[in-house]
Every structure is written in C-alpha cells, then in structure tokens.
Amino acid sequence: MSRLGNLGARLYQGEVGYDFVGKRKVWYGVSILITITAIVALAVQGLNMGIEFKGGAVFTTPKADVSVTQATEAAEEISDHIPIVQELGTGGLRIQISGVDTAEADRVQKALGQELGIPADKINADLVGPSWGEQIANKAWTGLGVFMLLVVVYLAIAFEWRMAVAALVALIHDITITVGIYALVGFEVTVGTVIGLLTILGYSLYDTVVVFDSLKESSKDITKQTRFTYSEIANRSINGTLVRSINTTVVALLPVAGLLFIGGGVLGAGMLNDISLSLFVGLAAGAYSSIFIATPLVADLKERDPQMKALRKRVLAKRAAAESKGESGDRADEQAVPVDDAPGEAATAGAVVGPRGRGRNRPSGRRR
Question: Residue 242: which domain range?
Fold first, then answer.
C-alpha cells in the first residue's frame, strides 16, 4: 500500500487526525478575510465585462506577420477604445473592441486592414449587442436561484436543515471567491465565465455531500454513547474522507489546469480561458469549503441542540471521572511499598493490587 493509501486508512480508522473542527474559528477568520477581500475588489475594481454584456465588435484576422502589441496599438489608435487582442492557434488575431456600432465597425475594419497590411475583406467582423448578454445574465441569475433552492430542499430532506444551511453558505462562499478573483486579476467576464460559474456549483457540493454522508452514518444513535461529542464525530468524518477529497480534487484540477495554462495561455484560446479560470478557482474553493467551512459549521449549529449539549456534558463528565480515577491510582502506586523489599511492612504500608509476592530467589515459590 502506498504512503497516501496508508495515511488514508489510518485517517479513516481514527488512528491519526487533525482537529479541523476544533480550530474552526481560525478557518472562519481566514474565509471572512478572503471574502472581504473579494467584495472590496468587486466594489473598487469591478468586473471586466466582456463584449457580450457591453456590446461592440469582434474582428478576426487571417494569419499575418503582426504581433499582438502592434495590433493592440493600431486598434486603440483607430477606435479610441482599449481593445482586447488575442492570438489564435491558427496564427490569426482576435481583436475585440467594446462600444462600437455598425457604422463605426465598417470604418474600423477598413482602417485595421490598412494598418496591419491585411485586405479588409479578409477580416471577419461580428457585431454583438448588449441586450443579448443582458438576457444571458438574467437567465444565469434565475438558474442560480433555482439551483440553490433545489439544493437546500434536497439536503434538508436527505440529511437535515443544518446541513442544508451549511452547504448554502459554502456555495455562496465559493462563488464570492471566484468572482472576486476575476475582479482582482482583471479577467474578462464572458458567457464562458457564466457557464463556468454555473458548472462549479455541482463540483462545490460534491465533497461537501461526501463528508455529510459520512457524518450522517457516524452520528446514528449518537446519544446512546458517551465516548464522543458531535463535534468530535464530525471531525472524524472529515479526516476519514480527507484523502478521498484530496484525490478527487487533484484529479479534477489537472485537466482544468491544462485548459487554463496550455489551452488558454499557450494556444491563446479565449473561451478556454474564460471557462477554465472559473472552474479552477471554483474547484479549489469548493474543496476548501467542504473541509474548513461546511462541516465545522454543521457542528457549530448541531452543538446548540439540547440533546447534543446534554451529550457533551455526559462525555466530559465521564472523561473527568476517568482522569480523576487514573490520578488516584497513580498516587496509590507511588505510596505503595513493594512486598519483596519490605515484607514485614506490607500490612501497614497498604495493600498492593496484584499476585502475591513469592519467596526471594524462588521462581516457583515451592519448597525444595
């Protein structure tokens, strides 16, 4: 068995573990700090909305000996707008200019042909109106709202309302971080970004539901025992599924990273960048929230239940009694005098628990 597999087995059996739930205030603080940073970035910088939402024109050129820098400078001088220029895998360029209407698009197309040394009729021009992007955004918000409602209802039925609330908080946490990253790095928000954001919702819930299912099984008849509190069982559930969560997240991130860094960065495919960045950030945030946010939050909410409070008192009382008994036993052992060393004082020094002392130098204790 590999080291990771051995670690996973030990985590599952409870032989080793990390106190995720016990340090939940630290994780809450980290998440709040990240969320505040994302909100501030959204408020200050805002999102770089794509042409689908602002309207404009997209010019696609055939293969030409023109660099991205040259095309950017030429397009900015011609249109008086800051363009977005991407190199395509075919060797051509994709020049996106916002705020360009039909009449201005014809002028820009001809001027670009002259500046770049490309026949104007070889440059493909596509006009996009802002109303189309607005319709996409409205449908996306509607789909997001319906999805979250269905998730809450399903989790409340399949598990309980506390888990549904925790999953909803984790989802909002993941979406906020993903959108905040877009604001910080200045990536363009396109229809592909919206598709990516809607896609990560399912991935974000996957690890959370796995941990919740393990917690549900482990907490059956929890009030009939006095060994563990609910928080401790929740922590054991996280540790038991930790290696599985890491494996599934890494396996999911590898192809997305390939799309982001190779497809988008090297090949220059704009749509791949838009989708893969949201997927990459969302998957990582979803794995983090399932371990550090969702399950600790469930434990927090559950510990407020009167039955769980009573269970905690019983568990702590039993442990205190066991520790007290153990300390008393240690003191008795320290005060006791061995029989062999002082056989005449055995009656006055106190009783010694265990087998009777045998004669000195007589292994069997029998007369010879």
Answer: 15-49+132-311
